[in-house]
Amino acid sequence: MSMRKVVLKATTDASGDATVNHVSNVLGKLYAILYKPGTIATGATITVTCQGVFAKPLLAKATAGTTDTMYYPRDIPHAVTDGAALTATAGGDRVLPLINGVPRLVVASGGNVTTGQVILYYED
Fold it and tell me: Which of 109, 6, 95, 2 is nearest to 49 (CA)?
């Protein structure tokens, strides 16, 4: 496997909102998301999802701040026998989220015409 990245650059409108979709489908295991706020307001909410074949949330962060921050989203696995979610109490039984679709960044309350980006690092 090799590490790849998807860059989603956003420019908010006058109301402080932006939605950015990647240009194509991505299939892989998400390793990390780097948030680079640029000029986006500290009180912004960022939401990163995967749309399409398998739609799912990857990261939601209210009051995202103005500092470059790395996030490591993880999923809780399920038992093969009955589909029950495993406990994840120790944090060690988390798995890399599967992404299969078009990555999307949504910014809310980001300020009037500001710019920022997220970079998704994934294994293919």
Answer: 6
Domains defined along the chain, listed by start: 3-75+93-123 (2.60.120.260)
Residue indicated by tokens 């920022």: 116
pLDDT of residue 90: 60
Find tokens 């039984």 and name the residue: 93
For residue 119, what are its two tokens? 């970079």
Pair of tokens at residue 54: 């398998």
pLDDT tens across 35-44, in order?
A: 999 999 999 9
Q: How far apart are CA 58 and CA 21, in angstroms?
A: 14
Query: Quick one: which of 6, 10, 68 has its CA closest to 37?
Result: 68
- pLDDT tens for each residue of 61-103: 999 999 999 999 998 887 788 888 776 666 567 889 999 999 9
Measure the CA angle with vertex 41, ends 38 and 42; round to 5°.
100
Considering the entire predicted model, what is its pTM? 0.92
Among 24, 15, 25, smallest CA distance to 100 is for 25
